[in-house]
Structures
1.
Amino acid sequence: MQRFQQYIDGKFEDGNASFPSVDPATGEVWAQMPEAGAEDVNRAVASAKRAFVSAEWSALTATQRGKLLYKLADLVQQYAQDLAVLETRDTGKIIRETSAQIAYVAEYYRYYAGIADKIEGTHLPIDKPDMEVWLRREPLGVIAAVVPWNSQLFLSAVKLGPALAAGCTVVLKASEDAPSPMLKFAELVHEAGFPAGVVNIITGFGQTCGQVLTQHPDIAHIAFTGGPETAKHIVRNSAENLASTSLELGGKSPFIVFDDVDIESAVNAQISGIFAATGQSCVAGSRLIIARGIKDRFLARLKEKAEQINIGSPDDMATEVGPLCTLAQRERINQIVQDSIDKGAKLLTGGSNIEGNGFYYPPTILDCSDVQDAPSVTNELFGPVLSVICFDTEEEAIALANNTQFGLACGVFTQNLSRAHRMIKAIRSGIVWVNTYRVVSPIAPFGGHGLSGHGREGGLDAVLDYTAVKAVWMRTSDDPIPDPFVMR
Ligand code: NAD
């Protein structure tokens, strides 16, 4: 059985306790993970705090920080396949996706490597004589990065990249459900040559490790990705240290199809939008909002294609849908599907657990046109389940799309340019994809509204979340300071 180590203060250690990690494809324990308790968390934060002011880190020029990030990017690229194999083993995410995604993660580090020496201050045209005033952009301090189990290397890169570019130090808590790729990644951080304590990588459970970390008095900012209920805990925890937060949460994203589309092309986008990553994607297009005129034709083709999906072992390059990450997640998804059917949703395909070892669930389509408040329509399932609702008018499509507390992503499929522009404006979401879906880049910001969270990751501005502005006032007159009781 493999054993993984945590990474604190530039050293790899076993930790005082460990816990088993389960292979979702077989349901068997395959590795032991180090469990960080309060003492480990405190040591990791203390190490990051020391590193923040250490000469080895704080005296580096921004260009030198960028070079370390370029080195890390090269290492991620070099070891992408090893990392992908681990992520697939631990999460059940198919190897086709982990290989492609992790190779691209290197580009996120390159993007922020290039930004490190472009974080500029400003000179102010101040309204006082004999004064020079300028703003310095300084690194915020110690960052707590907390990530969910899915796409951890990617979700870490959008936190570590800008945080390190800005000059912060980080304690990253990997998900207890599948920490192995992050613990392996720690070796690359070490090899890249970051000074001890600049990046610490630990794992453990939310209520213990996560809570101690996010409440810690020395944390300046919490960069969190996960579910909305956990985010509420995080925000409560941050009441202890008043850390700022960026929250990337779940979604119930509408995938809106008008009757003028190329059906084959839109069906392919919908298949990828909901069944890629076995539906375990925050931007999953899990609500199909379809024009009544093409509904029957569209659903017939969608069902046909969904039933052709190759379900299998996640480490097989031919597999298109693998297992869910945890047994508990499969039970929850199945329950919501059954409750929706009981409420009147029509099951078009899938809809029950796949027998055998492993946490498999088939691509499932529910027609909820007559039960728009079915639990599958209102809840984020985080699994391969599509709920369908149809509309007659553009206004109705907008109202349906916005009828959610989430606001992460949206897909609009139409050939009508004017309508596309109206939809872009009317939909409340952080991302709108027009005639495409599920495309990301380090250059484009990513994030949502409402229960989907706040703050944006990716893009230039994300780096500002990791900086604080310092206003510097300098008097330039040699004259003695006059009357001390008049404010100038
Ligand atoms: P989760 O919310 O259960 O856990 C996320 C992380 O929070 C884990 O590391 C967990 O240990 C930690 N945590 C749990 N309780 C905590 C506490 N009280 N204090 C501090 N930390 C705590 O999420 P999950 O099930 O691992 O992942 C699925 C969720 O993540 C879905 O809702 C999905 O939409 C969301 N997600 C969002 C994005 C995005 O970018 N918007 C990306 C991927 C996943």
2.
Amino acid sequence: MRKTELILALDVNSRQQAMRWVNLLYPKVTIFKVGLQLYTACGPKIIQDIRKTGAEVFLDLKFNDIPNTMANATRELLKYQVAMFTVHTLSGPDALKEVAQACRGSRAKALGVTVLTSISSNFLKDLKIQRSLSQEVLYLAKMAKKCGMSGVVCSVPQAKIIRKYLCRNFIIVCPGIRPAGSSRGDQQQIATPQAAKDGGADYIVVGRPILEARRPLAVTESILRDIS
Ligand code: C5P
């Protein structure tokens, strides 16, 4: 049976708040996601602070640039000893290959963001993209695999489809996770932790359902039970 792990999205704006969450939840949660907000607020030192506790860091900066810039930024990021990081698959195959090449010999797993879980199929229609949302995600995931990415970030329904076509050791990370009863927020493609596990996710990313909960520890424990 595939193991599904919980990643907490540290979507907060200070070191103090971030470390409060890490200290509360580690080692129940062993991977913490540093995204645009926290990284912009605290800089790379926050990664070191989190790693000092023994926890791992998923650096979610979603690079999207020309191949040369992506490769150089990846080489800088690898100095932080993160476990995983993200780039946009829409940066194209040349950029993805450069990133994969830069990662050779490092412990960091490069993940390609397919279509953001906040994007609806109507937006793809507006852009005159012919493929359905699922077809588009599968196309981008196959491209990411071919270019040497370690895995992808996608919604739970898309994870199920990708699992059918790509090998078991291709990492699938699913955000847009909402335990029953929690509010959708800006996410369009949502699923429960249990559905994510059943869909073949290796990792689920959860932010607001824990960060905004009245009893965050209880919510975390309940999610961990759902995916165990
Ligand atoms: O609060 P919520 O659980 O919706 O947070 C989801 C987290 O996952 C956010 O930090 C967001 O940046 C990230 N994410 C996402 N969709 C993606 C990739 C990352 O929601 N495709």
